[in-house]
Design goal:
13 strands, binds uridine-5'-diphosphate, six-stranded parallel sheet, binds uridine-diphosphate-N-acetylglucosamine, 369 residues, alpha/beta
Length: 369
């Protein structure tokens, strides 16, 4: 069986790690061809993950880079189609909800190759998010829908996916599988290997108890008011407890463009996965608008304050591990003040048991052998 895996953005390199490791166990029975769209290209957003996680070098790097949605996704679609025609894979494998995900889904479907979507069924119910558009469309043309949570399975059922009836590979409807979350697999595989770099080790030691924060969502960074409000909230908190903030280039550019002043926040370059896990392990709590980090906070037994109005990982809100505060300074400060009254309630199995990758590859292997 030949799988063409499409990656392009930071979280996809991490998600692909446990899946590629699992594919390797099948030796020559499954061949994985890796295509990097080049959506992320800075060393700290791309190569660092390949080297730390010993991911194989991409067989193809389209080098698409940054751009407006149409131009970026269109260039990816054109490039991926060419590789599909050349490689003739049995399956196209896509992760998450980025523009690379959408381009992979459309290219696969148009070339009549079944598409497997890992992280299917997630919904924020906010169509203003580019990621929501990407998720809905990617799910709609995928044959295999590997859902990380029960909520994501239910979302697909509510949208009628079980009733779809079309000629599609060997099924007459999409195959919905509750697989659990491959990010949990990645976390478990790496948590004992997380030796920090010297610089992060020193920053963590120098700053004592600290909060960890990341901001990169378009909905926050593309609005001057929202980004300023969030930063003012975090600046206020930093007066008493240091806030370490590995800064995404999108956010860094916007801080400069908007002329937002940083006094107390400790901005650092984006870090590798091991440094991130080390900071998660050592922080007091997390402030983020990242999808992945909301779960990794929970895996690390840390409370999360999410700088958004909604989340696709709603089960964490339901069990009190995550609080949604949007971008308002007052709500951020209030949530921070209430952290000490809150406790994490661990609920086993909501993201699977760390064997999601095994489950996913087993389903695919059985179907294609
Ligand atoms: C993308 C995904 C988002 C995901 C995030 C993970 C889409 C629509 N968005 O957002 O879902 O959460 O990746 O991090 O696919 N830039 C650099 N260097 C890079 C990459 C980007 O400087 O290596 C800058 C460029 O100015 C670029 C901006 O960051 O315009 C945004 O990059 P882009 O890939 O379009 O979106 P992300 O915000 O990274
Ligand atoms: N991450 C990282 N270094 C950073 C910021 C994030 O290794 O400086 C990891 C993080 O631990 C998680 C993933 O990147 O595994 C999340 O990616 P991101 O927040 O960019 O995207 P999202 O999950 O929101 O799509």
């Amino acid at each position: 069986m030949k799988i063409l895996t499409i990656v392009g953005a930071r979280p996809q390199f991490i998600k692909s790690y446990p899946i590629s490791k699992t594919i390797d166990k099948y030796n020559s029975e499954i061949q994985e061809v890796l295509l990097h769209t080049g959506q992320h290209y800075d060393f700290n957003l791309s190569k660092i993950f390949f080297s730390q996680l010993s991911l194989k070098e991409p067989d193809y790097n389209l080098g698409i880079g940054s751009g407006l949605h149409g131009a970026q996704s269109g260039a990816m679609l054109e490039g991926i189609e060419k590789i599909i025609l050349k490689e003739a894979p049995d399956l196209v494998l896509i992760y998450g909800d980025t523009n690379s995900t959408l381009a992979g889904a459309i290219a696969g479907a148009k070339c009549q190759i079944p598409v497997a979507h890992i992280e299917a069924g997630l919904r924020s119910f906010n169509l203003k998010m580019p990621e929501e558009v990407n998720r809905i469309l990617a799910d709609r043309v995928s044959t295999y829908l590997f859902c990380p949570t029960e909520n994501s399975v239910n979302n697909l059922k509510n949208e009628g996916f079980e009733n779809f009836n079309y000629s599609n590979f060997k099924y007459n409807k999409p195959k919905i599988v509750f697989s659990g979350d491959v990010m949990y697999d990645a976390f478990l595989l790496c948590k004992n290997k997380m030796k920090p770099s010297d610089s992060i080790y020193n920053i963590v030691k120098e700053n004592g108890p600290f909060y960890l924060s990341t901001i990169h969502r378009a909905e926050n960074t593309d609005s001057k008011e929202k980004l300023r409000d969030i930063i003012e909230g975090l600046e206020e908190i930093s007066k008493t407890i240091p806030v370490l903030c590995p800064i995404h280039p999108r956010t860094k550019n916007k801080i400069i463009e908007y002329g937002i002043k940083i006094k107390n926040l400790i901005l650092i370059e984006p870090v590798g996965y091991f440094d991130m896990l080390y900071m998660l392990d050592n922080c007091k709590a997390v402030f983020t608008d990242s999808g992945g980090l909301q779960k990794e906070a929970y895996f690390s037994n840390k409370l999360c304050i999410t700088l958004r109005e909604e989340t696709e990982w709603k089960e964490l809100v339901d069990i009190g591990a995550n609080t949604l505060v949007g971008s308002g300074k007052k709500r951020i400060l209030k949530a921070e003040a209430e952290l000490s009254n809150k406790k994490i309630k661990i609920q086993r199995g909501i993201y699977g048991n760390g064997n999601s990758s095994e489950r996913i590859i087993k389903v695919l292997h059985e179907d294609f052998s």
